[in-house]
Amino acid sequence: MASNALTDAPIRRRERLDPSVFRLPVERIREGYYSDVYFNRTVDVLQADRQHPQVLMQVFQKNYSVIGGMDEAIAILKLCSDDFSQLRVHALYDGDAIAPWESAMTIEGDYTLFARLETVYLGVLSRRTKVATNVRRVVDAAKGKQIIFFPARHDHHLVQTGDGYAAHVSGAIGVSTDAQASWWGGKGTGTVPHSLIGAYQGDTVLAAQKYAEFVDPSINLVVLVDWENDCVRTSLEVARALKDRLWGVRLDTSETMVDVSIQKLMGDFDPRGVNPQLCTLVRRALDREGFEQVKIVASGGFNVEKIERFERERVPVDAYGVGSAFFQGSYDFTADVVMVEGHPCAKAGRRYRPNPRLEPVT
Predict the structure, then answer these.
(1) Cβ(66)–Cβ(132) under 8 Å?
(2) Are residues 81 and 191 located together in one domain of the fold?
(3) Do 50 and 197 sit in the same domain of this protein?
(4) How far apart are CA 333 and CA 70, in angstroms?
């Protein structure tokens, strides 16, 4: 396999999630409700003609990527096929890196037992792999700094559970909702939000104090400090008020705004939003007053490229919050019949690609 950042250090999981974790609508999937209708008709034709071809189905995609959704796809086969005991499935693991065209999973057996499931398991793999791959790229760019998964508000709530798990296996240190953390038994994490600050008439310090008073003290207290567009002053005010209870401050200045502390430095850099100069000013101010332990979390428009730039410039950031960037790109999976009755049988341009990395699914 060619060397690639995504394949040099794969994360492997040797235990698969139990199928019950996914709470699949089993009967609806079995009846073909979520399937492309031509797969349902294919099953109808074969069964009416009393045909039960023994096939090998090969699943792959065409990019360097990180597998997500494999345990979910396997659960679909186990719970929704007509008889999983009659199938032989080999697969990679969630979190595994994969090369273009490399087989991620094979399914062998009577095609009528699982034909109608193709739409569903391919959709799961495509969606979760997109998230897993984008998270791994961000994690790599951050060079060991914490990545917090913040995209819940950018998509339908029903995708949160699987997306959160895909982020988890790819190295995200935290997710923002309990649903995103549910498959591995975790909990959502977050910061004092703008809405709570607003509820206390824009008083960031008061909102932070009330948060500290009424929220579980074991939770790391992170406070948004851009409400008044003066991150340096607000960070110091919060640190002075909360002292050791404060874990970190989060800079989230709008990309259409220039922070007060930056306005006097206007020069040969883009002054808008959360930029290296703003992070540096906040870090220096905290350190001057003895708050070296307070972490800086940067968010707002961060993606691989912006994080790589921050790391090249050694910007004093301890963690990054990333949102919609995790949904970028396309990692579409395809499934092909490549063997029938033990003999090669694939459409032009396709062939059986054995993969010794695949492991049997029990």
Answers:
(1) yes
(2) no
(3) no
(4) 12
Question: What pairs with residue 360 in β-bridges?
Answer: 90
Domain count of the fold of the chain:
2
For residues 195 and 96, membership in a common domain is answered with no
Q: Residue 169: which of 298, 15, 355 has the closest Cα?
A: 15
> Which DSSP helix (H) or strand (E) runs through 246?
strand 246-251
CB neighbourhood size of 66 (10 A): 29
For 178-192, give the DSSP string.
HHHHGGGT------B
Give the residue numbers spanning the domain of 75.
Answer: 5-130+330-360
Phi, psi of 230 (to 5 degrees): -140, 75
12-64 confidence digits (pLDDT tens): 457 899 999 999 999 999 999 999 999 999 999 999 999 999 999 999 999 99
Q: Based on the domain organization, do 192 and 44 belong to the same domain?
A: no
User: Beta strand pairing status for 105-110 and 54-60?
Assistant: antiparallel
The pTM (predicted TM-score) of the whole model is 0.87
DSSP state of 318: S
Contact 29, 23 (CB under 8 A): no
